[in-house]
Records
---
Amino acid sequence: MGKIYMTACMKGGCAKTVTTYNLAYSLQKLGKKVLAVDFDSQANLTTCFGVEDPAAVPVTIGHLMMAQIEDEELPAAEEYIMSRNGVDFIPSSMVLSVVDAKLRLEMGAEKMLSGILESLRDRYDAIIIDTAPTLGALNINALAAADEVIITVNPQLLAMMGLQDFLKTVKKIKSRINDKLDVAGILLTMCDARTNLCKVITEQVTDTFEGQIRIFDSKIPNTVKVGESVYYSEPLLEYAPECKACEAYENFAKELIAYEG
Ligand SMILES: Nc1ncnc2c1ncn2[C@@H]1O[C@H](COP(=O)(O)OP(=O)(O)OP(=O)(O)O)[C@@H](O)[C@H]1O
Ligand SMILES: [Mg+2]
């Protein structure tokens, strides 16, 4: 039975997508069978996987969500699961923004994504959901589907703001909708070693959450290689396996697994 992770942050640009993408390949390198789910209508993760025109993909997560909301039968997994270099993924497109609007009008529609992913859980060791930086109906669905939330914090962006509200929501979802939900921890991303800020924010995060939430030892350094690898639609393990960010994501993957025993 695979574990369902979700990368989350209530601010944009905290490296959720880059983390989902590189964590997927780092876990694969550790022998895990991984499915990455693009649950953001921006479809950035889908582009990372090399899909040039997400709008042209016939079955995306948006289509699956629509079918689920309408109580229609889902297509066979082979029709919507794509694969790149051994990592499977479910693409997204703008269709998901229509779903977002529709979900707001539906009652009791928090478990739509869960319904889709539970049917796939047995096929994978890890399923990772990449989310958008909002706390709307889509992310409630992601929280209702996930076992573990990985919170990405970008020290440059005062990303701690909004974190307490998000944690409150996690608590509510856990008690009302999904009792298996837990916070895996906080991952500091885009840490610029040349500035003192990363150190200061790390201390601030530690002081605030010590004993409450795990802060991963692995911190992802800022490097131009990340942007380049995204541009070329290659994970760091392919594009720049020697770079520090790649090593950090590999260590993070190990930490994540070790933590679960
Ligand atoms: N470690 C890093 N070093 C340098 N640049 C990075 C790093 N991590 C992410 N980036 C860059 O920061 C930008 C935002 O990253 P990403 O798209 O993963 O964030 P996000 O949290 O998914 O954003 P959104 O909220 O819009 O979905 C991208 O341009 C990405 O290439
Ligand atoms: Mg993103």
---
Amino acid sequence: MGPPAFVLAALLVHCVFLASLFDIYFSSPLVHGMAPQRVPLPAPARRLVLFVADGLRADALFGLDGSGAPRAPFLRSILENNGSWGISHTRVPTESRPGHVALIAGFYEDVSAVAKGWKENPVQFDSVFNESKYTWSWGSPDILPMFAKGASGDHVYTFCYTAESEDFGAQDAAKLDSWVFDHVKDFFTSSRNNQTLYSALTEEKVVLFLHLLGIDTNGHAHRPNSREYKENIKKVDEGVKEIASMLENFYGNDGKTAFILTSDHGMTDWGSHGAGHPSETLTPLIAWGAGVNYPQRVASQFFEDSFLQGIWKYVKMGVLLFAQADIAPLMASLIGVPFPLNSVVRKEEVFKRRLEDVRQGKIRVLEKLFLQYSNLVHACFLSLQVSLCKTVINLALEGLSYYHTYDRLFLGLSIAMGFVGWTAYVILVIVKTHTNLAKAAPRHGKVGQKHALFLLSFFSTSQ
Ligand SMILES: [Zn+2]
């Protein structure tokens, strides 16, 4: 094999190795062709408001400030008096895009997106927004367009500041959030003079999404322990309060609005995110309004995770532990739209917790389900069915994961052996062309050198 052919072969081999990496490990978890499923009950809410405070840490939101007062007084009063709170577990990479995909589409980011540009939708996926009748969203141009682009038809609307004007948040990033709150208020005010918009807003299965980037930006610039980060949490708390009361007014206190506030990921003490530290993966969740249960006071609750235990001591109310991808089916059931087609519930712990809630009637929408059937079905029979369902679901999830990864060992071994073979070949070529070992071999006649010579002749037959 001459030098050009050798270089060409080397390039080819490395291309194959690189491609195999993507082919084996970056395969899409999306499963297509499922029939849409929904909760077969009347939806408790006509509309859902989703606030995502980008980069908001759970301990920063629930914690107290220096004087012992809650940092977010409005949200604090919600979780003490008329809502539920929880911790949603995100997965690595703790970045904005995969976090939002888990929240809104209900599955963990398709890593094949990395190979295809990441920003726009490389793979079509379904989302709660797509299943809604109308979704209006306000916030960053890095997040909103991916859900509008994937949506079928014209029913997901976005209002973004431009990427350049994100700089207007350079002096005070909280302005990014004021921009969103102001635009939502103006939008609702203007709808009073726009009959088409007004009637669309009063439809059922409506979603309003407010993406708030200020806290993340402040966290990167000043770290989560800074005055700026904490002040921004206060601003968001005030903004959420204003939006909630504006909406109650607009809809004449019809009690048909459900609210969810969460974050896409947290942030480390030094102002970064992407990895798997609890400060990055544990994000806050507060839900209130139509279909959401009132808070449960509990005397104590134990968590193995000390970070989680630390958060609980600030609130001392029964906490719900969620996987981030569970929030999408929760939102879908609140407004009565089918679960996003690609959504997946994997965490057995959460499933158990949900079953507990169903049994105790903790979540009102599920409580109704329970009451509806309790007259017909004996409690024992129900619990037998529940445990059967549980087994089937766990088996299905195991199977799903198995079929997503079953050939990885075989393919990985093949690639590893190919790599070892290629390395051996390269070493032999170097030995042959850059040393006189091959020529020296017959003279000394040592066994090892004879072997080397045999291998050399084997590999260089093509010459
Ligand atoms: Zn960030």
---
Amino acid sequence: MSISFEKVESKRNIKDAIYTEVIPAGLGYMKPLYKGQTLRIEDTHGNQGLDFLCYDLHNPEDHYSSTQTICRQKNIYINVGTTLVTESGKELLKITADTCTCQDTLGGACACESNTVRYGHHTLHMRTCRDTFLECISEFAGQYSKVDLVPNVNIFAQILKLPDNTFEFLDGISAPGSYIEFEALNDTMILISNCPQINNPCSGFAPTTNQIYIFDK
Ligand SMILES: [Zn+2]
């Protein structure tokens, strides 16, 4: 499978969106995206990372798999040409446009535990993406639980693999208005945390809003 790392713009116009929602800094979004629909995520102000997961809508246990997705395309980065697949190999989402070209598959979601290890014990009570994920799935109690919070995609995030095999959270490169689009290949549950992190540059140390748009076929 060939992955393009060129910026690819969408032919869609936001005036044609059937639904739009602003995700404030530090909050989340969890809603279905039905087969044939397209989800656009826009980095409204620039340099604002967000954490992203997806599930088979009709079988939530079959969640996004970073391992399956990376192995299938033989590349740790995702862009236009990538299909996000589940643990069972089911195709959920295909990336059809990307004007940022800086998404990460390995860095994971911020959590109070990792914050304290990385940035000190005083960060223990700061809000994290894991908090947001937990709040979102609590709205679907009985269908989703902690075990479903698996390694995620970091959208608009620059976390590079360095020559010594370590990782570093770098300043983002997404400009205001950058966006990425996912077309649903099957009915999918989308889970997003608009990252509240203020201890590394993934949100420019000052988290801002994102906006989502949904388009029908
Ligand atoms: Zn985060």
---
Amino acid sequence: MGKPYGRSYVLITGATTGIGYELAKLYASDGNNLILVARDEQRLRGVKEELSLYSIKVYTIALDLSEDNSCEKVLDFVDKKNISVDILINNAGLGSFGYISEIEMEKELKLIDVNIRALTELTKTFLPIMIEHGEGAIMNVASTAAFCAGPKMAVYYASKAYVLNFTEALHEEVKNSEIKISCLCPGPVKTSFQEKSGIKKSEGAKNTLMSAKDVAEIAYKDFRKGKVIIIPGFKNKLIVTLNKFIPRSLSRKIILMMNKG
Ligand SMILES: NC(=O)c1ccc[n+]([C@@H]2O[C@H](COP(=O)([O-])OP(=O)(O)OC[C@H]3O[C@@H](n4cnc5c(N)ncnc54)[C@H](OP(=O)(O)O)[C@@H]3O)[C@@H](O)[C@H]2O)c1
């Protein structure tokens, strides 16, 4: 079965702020139709209006990806509109900060639902359709946290390790096809994510973080090139490389020291 002609879309989760929002603008300015997913309906409407200056079609789906059946709802929407998701960007993600015994169970489980379950379900929903169409692309957003253990952010770091390993495995499975699979691994980025996760940073420290715009621009370019693991910024690349050469026992001590502040 061929895909509906001229009805191809880029689906971006978490597209109202931060990295997802910047990616949405880049795809829009390049003439791609968009499906934007986030919880806040009003902000989704605002982004849709903002992108109306481009001659593209924008659909929005107000949805909490931590809820059961959220991915089914996305597929239902796409089927009803008779459109096709050619590019899937699993960007929505949550963080939780603190010692494991201090963080509420509900918060951690919600994190797992969004960062792991929804990302896996959306990938498993749309990848087979892309395979059937013979083309497509998926970018999953992990973090430099994916490369190490993260005391005081244990569940978050572990969730991103899942995303990295899952995505790399899929890349290998489909690499002889026309389907591109990438994993974006940013270091700390200046978005509302830090505050929402409970990470406290001084204004000075915040100003040293990469901007979401810079991260999105690098991601956009490298994803198109088919790069498997995208680590934006020299400093982040260096940290990930150095981490490979030190024992894990030392790496986790350093992370704990950093997370203690
Ligand atoms: N910022 C960093 O330091 C950093 C570093 C490395 C990796 N990352 C990763 O990059 C990705 C994007 O982060 P960001 O910094 O751009 O975050 P952000 O500015 O907080 O944006 C998060 C986006 O996800 C949506 N979202 C949150 N929870 C959702 C849910 N339950 N269901 C549906 N949508 C939801 C938010 O909209 P609503 O609130 O309206 O739902 C928003 O559009 C995440 O996966 C994060 O883990 C971030």
